[in-house]
Amino acid sequence: MKKNFLIYLLLSFFLLTMGGCGTTNKEAQQNADGQKLNVVVSFDAIRAITEAVGGDHVNVQNIIPSGSEPHNFEPTAQNLATLQNAKLFIYNGFSLEQSWLDKSLSTVSDKIDKKELTVVEASKGATPLQLDEKADNGTSLPDPHIWLSIEGGELEAENIKNALIQVDPANKDDYEKNYQNLKNDMDQLKQEYAAKFANSKRKDFVTGHAAFGYLARDFGLQQNSVSDALLSGEPSAKKLKELTDYCKENHVTTIFVEDMVSPKVSETLANEVNAKAVKIYTLEDIPDGMDYIAVLKYDLDKIYESLN
After folding, report:
1. Is the pTM of this model over 0.90?
2. Which residues neighbour 83 within 8 Å (Cβ) at sequence distance 6 or greater?
3. What was the pLDDT predicted at 7?
4. CATH number of 5-186
């Protein structure tokens, strides 16, 4: 969906007058005292990684509110107001934010030009998986879900660590330490589940939303899905028939239902093939009481269970 660019020009004026509405008085005072670094991120997964690396030195806010589906999101003036107080803005990349990123950054172009706001693409340097879906110009689109991969998550964490050090060099040692702790935890997960998946009875799993391609690549697995990676429309009858036949022929016992996607089609498929529907998380909305590592481990556990 496209907005009239005039709206974004008007937002520029609005945000200049509304600059503080995205931050509480307490947070504003902390930043004024140098106690917290104001960081704005595009959505929850990037927030979780940034908080893990930034620790006590950062105050992190989302543009896309928790609980909102990021694929088709269009920010409001209130969402964008948080950028006015930020020193660092981190987005995922791989086209996830393409519908609004450039237009939104144009509202704070003066801060960027004055180097008062640093903008970082968390996925920079990664090799994207290419989707069957095409952009308007006919080129292939990258799969944006790199944060669900352990290897991809480590790369994003390193990019975020480097950005935090660039903006806040006084706390470099803490950022390095926090990053290394996170990387160690992720390396342990990778080693544990590489061994488990190597001995799995099967190597394929079925999801409602094709969000787990990078995770599958990490461990040599195959993902089959009802909906495409960009949630770009309802699955066709032909697609559903092929997937139903696949599940029956391969005795699939679990259909994963993502937390941010309507479960209706996946649950219908599960009933059709006599499988159980199991919730899995895309980290587009972090469950209460869980952090980035806990969600990754939960997902890996459920996928492993489905293969045995």
Report:
1. no
2. 15, 22, 40, 63, 89, 104, 105, 107, 108, 111, 117
3. 44
4. 3.40.50.1980
